[in-house]
Amino acid sequence: MGVQRVLLALLSFSSTFIGSTTGVESCKGTFILEGPWFAKVNLVATSDPPNAHYVMSSNFDNFPKGPEYKQMLDILGDGIFNSDLDLWKNQRIAAQGFMRHHLFHQFLLRTSRDKVEMGLMSIIDHATKHGLVINLKDIFQRFTFDSVCILVTGYDPSSLSLELPQVFFSKSVHDSEQGIFYRHVRPRSFTKLQKWLNIGQEGKYKKALKVVDDVLAKYIYETKRRRLFNVDEVKNLVYLHEVLCEALRLYPPVPFNHKKPVKPDILSSGHPVHPKTKILFIVYSMGRIESIWGEDCYEFKPERWINERGEIKHEPSYKFLSFGAGPRICLGKETSFIQMKPVASALIYNYRIHVMEETPVVSIVSAVLHTENGLMTRISKRWE
C-alpha cells in the first residue's frame, strides 16, 4: 500500500505530500515502481540519505542530469542546471567565482535591504494602518521577483509597490513550474501529444515560456547600473539562520529531484538500477522521516540546528537535501540566506503576523513547492 499511497500523493492536486511521506516511510525509505511498457515508467523513489549521498556525491559521475532532464526543463536551456560534463564544470567554476566574491554579497544585501525598506515595509505598514488582510505569499513572490530581476538584469520592475500591479511574468513562471512537474510523472508520449496539439499543461507551458522570454528581454534592455553595500550586518543572526534551515527542512523549495545512471549500479540500500531506471528523490519526505530526524521530525524546532557551543550545526547535504548535494550542490545556498535574513528580520522585529484560519495553508503539486491558497494574513505593528 505504501507505493500506491506515494503515487496517488504525487498525482493528486489536493495532496499535501503527507501521503507520499507515509508511503515512503512504510517502504523503509525506498521503493520500486514499474508501469506498463507503453508508459515507460521505471522508477526507484527514495528518501534515504545514504542513497542520496551515493548518487549525488560518492558515485556522482554515474548519475548525470542526462538528456531527459534537459527535455523536461527546456526553459533553462544549456545553463548550469541542465548541462553535464565540461559544459557544466566550466559554468560552475565561473558562477562560483562570481557568487563567492565579497562585492557580489555586498550588492545582494544592499539590494535586499533597499527592497525591504522601500517596498516590503511600505506595503506592510499600509496593511496595518487600514486593518487589511494581505496575501503574504504574493508579497514574498513579488519581493523575490523584483530582487531576481535586479540581480540578473539590473532592472527593477517594482512589482512590490502599494498598487500591487498584475505581474504576468509570475503567473507564467507558475504555469511553467506545473508543466515541469507533470513532465516528471506523465509518459513522454502524452506530453508530446499535448505539445503538438498545443493543449493542456504543455499548451500553457508554451505560452508561459514566450512571456518569460519577452519579459526578460525587456528588462535586460532597460538595465540600470548596480550598487554595492556592506554584508557584515547579517552575519551574526545565528538563530534566524537556524529558523530558516528548519523551514527549508520541512518545506523544501524543490520537493523532489531525479537522476539516471549511465551504467548499471547498486544503491546503498541494495536496490539495483540501470540506465533506464529513474531515481526519484522525495526531498519533502526526507525532512519528515523519524529515522532521519528523530521522533520530533514533524515539529518545527530550530534548536536542532545549534551545537553545544551555540554555533550553527552542520548537517550532511545528503540528509538536508533542500540545496542538493555533491558536486551539483546549489551555488546559491549562501546567497539565499543573505536575501532571506533582511526580509525575515524586518518583519519579525516590527510586526505581529496572524495567519487567517479561513484560508488554510495547503501545498500544491508543482516543480516548486507552493501553497494553493497563498498565505493570507492580518498584520499589526509590534511597537504601538
UniProtKB/TrEMBL annotation:
<dbReference type="GO" id="GO:0006629">
    <property type="term" value="P:lipid metabolic process"/>
</dbReference>
<feature type="binding site" description="axial binding residue">
    <location>
        <position position="330"/>
    </location>
    <ligand>
        <name>heme</name>
    </ligand>
</feature>
<dbReference type="InterPro" id="IPR036396">
    <property type="entry name" value="Cyt_P450_sf"/>
</dbReference>
<keyword id="KW-0503">Monooxygenase</keyword>
<dbReference type="GO" id="GO:0004497">
    <property type="term" value="F:monooxygenase activity"/>
</dbReference>
<dbReference type="GO" id="GO:0020037">
    <property type="term" value="F:heme binding"/>
</dbReference>
<dbReference type="Pfam" id="PF00067">
    <property type="entry name" value="p450"/>
</dbReference>
<comment type="similarity">
    <text>Belongs to the cytochrome P450 family.</text>
</comment>
<dbReference type="InterPro" id="IPR002403">
    <property type="entry name" value="Cyt_P450_E_grp-IV"/>
</dbReference>
<keyword id="KW-0349">Heme</keyword>
<protein>
    <recommendedName>
        <fullName>Cytochrome P450</fullName>
    </recommendedName>
</protein>
<dbReference type="InterPro" id="IPR017972">
    <property type="entry name" value="Cyt_P450_CS"/>
</dbReference>
<keyword id="KW-0560">Oxidoreductase</keyword>
<keyword id="KW-0479">Metal-binding</keyword>
<keyword id="KW-0408">Iron</keyword>
<dbReference type="GO" id="GO:0005506">
    <property type="term" value="F:iron ion binding"/>
</dbReference>
<dbReference type="InterPro" id="IPR001128">
    <property type="entry name" value="Cyt_P450"/>
</dbReference>
<keyword id="KW-0732">Signal</keyword>
<feature type="signal peptide">
    <location>
        <begin position="1"/>
        <end position="23"/>
    </location>
</feature>
<dbReference type="GO" id="GO:0016705">
    <property type="term" value="F:oxidoreductase activity, acting on paired donors, with incorporation or reduction of molecular oxygen"/>
</dbReference>
